[in-house]
Amino acid sequence: MDKNNESRFERGTRALSDIDGEGGRKVVDSLADIAPDFARYIIEFPFGDIYSRPGLDLRSREIATIAALTALGNAAPQLKVHIQAGLNVGLSRDEIVETIMQMAVYAGFPAALNGLFAAREVFQEKHSLAA
Amino acid sequence: MDKNNESRFERGTRALSDIDGEGGRKVVDSLADIAPDFARYIIEFPFGDIYSRPGLDLRSREIATIAALTALGNAAPQLKVHIQAGLNVGLSRDEIVETIMQMAVYAGFPAALNGLFAAREVFQEKHSLAA
Amino acid sequence: MDKNNESRFERGTRALSDIDGEGGRKVVDSLADIAPDFARYIIEFPFGDIYSRPGLDLRSREIATIAALTALGNAAPQLKVHIQAGLNVGLSRDEIVETIMQMAVYAGFPAALNGLFAAREVFQEKHSLAA
Amino acid sequence: MDKNNESRFERGTRALSDIDGEGGRKVVDSLADIAPDFARYIIEFPFGDIYSRPGLDLRSREIATIAALTALGNAAPQLKVHIQAGLNVGLSRDEIVETIMQMAVYAGFPAALNGLFAAREVFQEKHSLAA
Amino acid sequence: MDKNNESRFERGTRALSDIDGEGGRKVVDSLADIAPDFARYIIEFPFGDIYSRPGLDLRSREIATIAALTALGNAAPQLKVHIQAGLNVGLSRDEIVETIMQMAVYAGFPAALNGLFAAREVFQEKHSLAA
Amino acid sequence: MDKNNESRFERGTRALSDIDGEGGRKVVDSLADIAPDFARYIIEFPFGDIYSRPGLDLRSREIATIAALTALGNAAPQLKVHIQAGLNVGLSRDEIVETIMQMAVYAGFPAALNGLFAAREVFQEKHSLAA
């Protein structure tokens, strides 16, 4: 990788670690054996390009991501990573729960229910780790 | 409708008008001949119950809705209503564009593209009305 | 086509005409230039195999189809064909509207709204034809 | 909650218990710690407002819900609750299987297959309980 | 079943076994108790009609199926069967991984990630079987 | 943009023009006023990173994209661009039609039907341009 890719990669690595913390690193590591280039793309595009942009704060970006993943309803592991990410960037549990509940209006009650159950798992893990 | 339904209905009517303005009223009116009760439900549940809750500000709620409708990609008219609603509650055009662009990561580039084209239509209508 | 395909084909043609009437024939004809075999498959599998099965009456089958197409929200032309089909097999306008409204619970309010607008178009066409 | 909310709540509680039985109560209870208000909304809107409406019988309403959840394919737990609900309101196993099989036409064979596997689980649980 | 249905059924059985091997047979067998007719439809329509058509080679057909199931993101078991099917008809692991990675562009990074994890499971099972 | 971004950008611009031709350029140009950075991302990530990768030929990549966009069913304009792209990279009309028809198995008949209608539009435009 030449200098500029390093800089996108470095910027993305920093953003991934600031936002997703452990969860993000685990996803990237889990790709090492099957698709290492895809791990690099995740760091460079979503985190190096998108999340690093000015113009929308990280709290708003995580609200958008939690809303979208709850509504799509087919990416439970990634939703849990971003519920944790929401807490990491300063969203309260209430703000996350409100965001997920609102999805009942746009994607139906089952999508919102499954999002709330994902949130409970994340909150409980966090609690037991804190204990 | 007895007193309490009136109060949910009144609260929802106020929220619908504060948030969606003209767009919301048009949607409700458009249901008068086919499903008037559904028009009432839209006022009572999404707006009287959900958007009226404390715990998440309206700017964040519209970011969540714009993100979800962009990601789902099958509700263009409602996305346009909520892009306008986002402007109504104080989101900047940049914040709306950033929210939609971010959906390329979670729902693919076509969903984000179609969201950006919806935003352009809303921004242009607003501009021409202002002119 | 040998005898048995004719029999599936004939059974499907009868079912298609009983259920979808004009709308079904138009869809099949519209495939003649691009994918004639697909027109045959539509007649043979959905109509010759599935809709011709005993065990669920046609009214219930059209309720299932109207519900699914409203919830999926990405097949407006087919939803309109099946709203007409619902009327053809004896569903009342109210039963169709109730089915679509219920989808707000499972697929969100925008999906239900767009389904209701499709129903209004079909009901109005029917009305103007009747006039 | 004042009188009318109680009445929506009471009507919804009765409908939830008539339709979903144990399954519904479990879902509502499971929300107590994370989003108690959402448990109330589930009782009030889907069950107090929608399922309590005249104009479509409960057997037809469950066919619509089983069809939609099978087609959407991203809410397996809720599909299982409503397959049980279908049995509770008088649908036969055959009618439920026919409804799910038909979804192969509108949402593809994998969605129908996963719906059939959900039905088998529900039928087997019921059988073993009955044994 | 008369002669021609046998021939669709036989052609489909051959195609199912050539393409999906064990995985396909298991799916069909798993339907014996709940929906035996659906097992027959899977053999007759997807395999007897579609996969048996000239005009697109099996490698291309499996690329199309792996792409679609990755993008839809709600049919993990069927995606795994078709990743194995891709290997059976001569796709390399790299070609399968490239197909899945590309879906990040059209269905988002979570859909591609979950597709890659499904591929890893299939490749590892194959490896351990080979060991 | 420093040297390396230029190189990703240049590689992507070449790939976009080889694959999508006019259609791709139009999409990129259409973003100039609303989200110019997103136009750059489309060139850099999908085309500069993904489509430029060795390991899967462009014909296979377009089969994957046509399959996915047909199955998702919520991005008709992008599907049309990629049906044209398929012709540009050497797919025959038959191969494109076979790919779309196969999606009836994985995403249902309406998704395949709407894909076939998109293909007809593209083939007709091409024909009339050729005339």
Give an overview of the whole structure.
- Six copies of one chain form a homohexamer.
- Chain A is an all-alpha fold and 131 residues long.
- Chain A contains seven helices and no strands.
- In chain A, helix 4 (58-72) runs antiparallel to helix 5 (76-88), helix 4 packs across helix 7 (109-130) and helix 5 packs across helix 7.
- The N and C termini of chain A lie far apart (42 Å).
- The model of chain A has no long low-confidence stretch (mean pLDDT 92).
- Chains A, B, C, D, E, F: Its EC number is 4.1.1.44.
- Chains A, B, C, D, E, F: It is an enzyme of class 4 (lyase).
- Chains A, B, C, D, E, F: It comes from Aminobacter aminovorans.
Q: What is the count of β-strands of chain A?
A: 0
Query: Which chain pair shows the most residues in contact?
Result: A-B, 34 and 34 residues
The amount of beta strand of chain A, in percent, is under 5%
Mean pLDDT, all residues of chain A: 92
Flag low-confidence runs of chain A: none
> What is the N-to-C order of secondary-structure elements of chain A (H for helix, E for strand)?
HHHHHHH
Overall CATH architecture of the largest domain in chain A: Up-down Bundle
The CATH superfamily of the largest domain in chain A bears the name AhpD-like
CATH class group of the largest domain in chain A = Mainly Alpha
Distance between termini of chain A? 42 Å
Q: Which assembly state applies to the chains in this document?
A: homohexamer
Helix content of chain A: over 70%
Q: Output the structural class of chain A.
A: mainly alpha
Number of separate structural domains of chain A = 2
Q: Report on the biggest sheet of chain A.
A: none
Using only C-alpha atoms, the radius of gyration of chain A works out to 15 Å
